[in-house]
Amino acid sequence: MKKKKEYREIVPSESWFKSTLVRITLYLLGLGIQEACNLDPRAKKEMEKLPDPFTFSIGIHDGIAATVQKKGGKMKYLRVINEKIQADLELRFKNLEYTYLAMTGRMSTPNLGYHFRQYIKGDLARMMTMIRIMNIAQTLLFPNIIVRFYIKKVPRLTVRTMINRVIAYINIFGLSAFK
Amino acid sequence: MFFMKDNTLPEYYEFFNSVKVISGYKALENIPYELSQLGAKKPIIITDKGIVKAGLIKHVIKSFQGTKITIGAVYDDTPVDSSNVVVDEIAEIYRQKGCDSIIAVGGGSAIDTAKGVNIVISEDSDDLLKLMGNNRLTKPMKPFVVIPTTAGTGSEVTMAAVIANPSKNVKMQFTSALMLPKLAVLDPRMTLSMPARITAATSMDALTHAVEAFIGPQKNPISDAFATAAIELIRDNIVDAVKHGGNADVRLAMANAALLAGLAFSNSMVGIVHAAAHATGGICHVPHGVANSILLPHGLDLYIRKSGEAKKALHLKQNIEKVLLPLAGPEQYMKVPARERAQGAVKAIRDLTANLNKICGLPVRLSQAGVIENSLPEIAQATINDGAIAFSPVEVSYEEALALIKAAF
């Protein structure tokens, strides 16, 4: 039989690779939401329905999250932080692993919801608006062949989307270079 | 890999419901014992004038005879649409009288009001708005008993409530597993006096819960079992319940059907039909059961048309085909060729609503239910903003929602 002192606490180890990848994709998603609201008229129209000011945060339960804020009629990406955020609306994945699978396109966002692997804190109607904005943001960030892993229905690729995608890339990576 | 391996078992699912169910004759008489087991000695009863007038509350009060439990108060002023004003008023009475538990007796409004009171008391908050939305609640609730007097909403086993805030003109939605009642009591005496048309509408509400739960993307073996049991009970009893409301056996069967459907949809969720019904109710004040009854076949038609767009693993069309079995019975199911079963299920629902229309005048079109044509675009917009749309197996655009509403008009 083990002695009492042999029973040790187990502090969970960090998964640096997954954490870093999730941090980067959350960062890109946050910027993508900002760019979608600036560039895409559909996203802009959706954003107008949200109250002003309004904060939305997406991330891991008790972990890192990306936050965007609508203020003065503009959507702005704030940052990815590892603190408790008091957002008006939160979308939280229950575990780093689920976030990692979602962010690498191996588990679609709708499926995460169907499986209860994520939860929403806040008004569901506003979440519908944010989901539509995020869908547009993802079509800006990624080619359609990847987007189909994330969302229910991939929108038709138009010249306008292509141009917006290029502008978004320039803005996002341009911004990244100066951060 | 990431959704379903086959049509019978999801790759992953969760099911949760902690409500104790007591169903049957003289079931009410069990409430004092159950309350004592929960450590409660002084419940407040929340109901409405209609329930008192129908003499139903007497059955509840009588069930406490000879026990040591005191009824703190009977609040019977619950309006048709519960509001934060009423919730605050009842919470004040609860505190003044030193109550320690809540009994809701009624339909959706009384039950939702009681859930709201429980939130205010348990969270010790003076502003429900701060707690609005999903998963905002953090504290365990007071012992809460629900006695439904309609057989439709399934609220006795669900973790959601909708409460209006008239001053801010918003309908506040609350969702949290903490809100689940401790006890649901189904006693046939409590639904005997329900008028035929309300019986038909609430029964169709239950049927919609069960059908949407059975074809939704969160379906799982447990929710399927509850959903199909509910559909079979409704199939066998709905017409009798409308025609012969005084039959206690039939009433108990329908109360059970509504509860089973509630258990199914509180875990498997509802989709486009409910999204459109919430919107229709919110804008044109069409009773929820009536709206569901009208919209259910149109929602299924839309799903069948768009089934090719749904993820293959959702087996959307096959699931609609399977609904025909509990809905029409095995003999009828076998008569319908396999490729026509999805449309067969829609036809079975249309036949049922047409029959109910003949028996009690249940509307079969939105125009018959007081919806005006000008409001259709607003209803379509509210439909795609409704939370239930997230659980639609297919993406539904504004244009598609509008087409659905127009077809039902």
Give me a quick take on this structure.
The complex is a heterodimer of chains A (179) and B (409). Chain A is an alpha+beta fold.
What topology does this entry show?
The complex is a heterodimer of chains A (179) and B (409).
Chain A: H1 16-39, H2 41-48, E1 54-60, E2 65-71, E3 74-81, E4 89-93, H3 96-103, H4 109-114, E5 118-121, H5 124-141, H6 144-150, H7 159-178
Parallel strand pairs in A: 1-4
Antiparallel strand pairs in A: 1-2, 2-3, 4-5
Chain B: E1 20-23, H1 31-37, E2 43-46, H2 49-53, H3 56-62, E3 73-75, H4 84-96, E4 101-106, H5 108-123, E5 133-134, E6 144-148, E7 160-165, E8 170-175, E9 183-186, H6 196-215, H7 221-243, H8 248-268, H9 272-284, H10 288-306, H11 316-328, H12 330-335, H13 341-360, H14 376-385, H15 398-408
Parallel strand pairs in B: 1-9, 2-3, 2-4, 4-6, 5-8, 6-9
Antiparallel strand pairs in B: 7-8
Helix pairs in contact in B: 4-5, 6-7, 6-8, 6-10, 7-8, 7-11, 9-10, 9-14, 10-13, 10-15, 11-13, 14-15
Q: What's the helix count of chain B?
A: 15
Total beta-strand segments of chain B: 9
CATH superfamily of the largest domain in chain B: Dehydroquinate synthase-like - alpha domain
Low-confidence stretches of chain B: 1-5
Number of separate domains of chain B: 2
Helix content of chain B: 40-55%
Average pLDDT score of chain A: 84
CATH architecture of chain A: 2-Layer Sandwich
Ends distance of chain A: 56 Å
Radius of gyration of chain A, rounded? 18 Å
Main sheet: strands, sense, barrel of chain B? 6 strands, parallel
CATH topology of the largest domain in chain B: Dehydroquinate synthase-like, alpha domain
Pair of chains with the largest interface and how many residues each contributes: A-B, 26 and 26 residues
Strand content of chain A: 15-25%
Q: How would you name the oligomeric state of the polypeptide chains in this document?
A: heterodimer
CATH class label of the largest domain in chain B: Mainly Alpha
Beta-strand percentage range of chain B: 5-15%
- Main sheet of chain A, how many strands, which sense, barrel? 5 strands, mixed
CATH architecture of the largest domain in chain B: Up-down Bundle
**Termini of chain B, distance in Å?**
41 Å
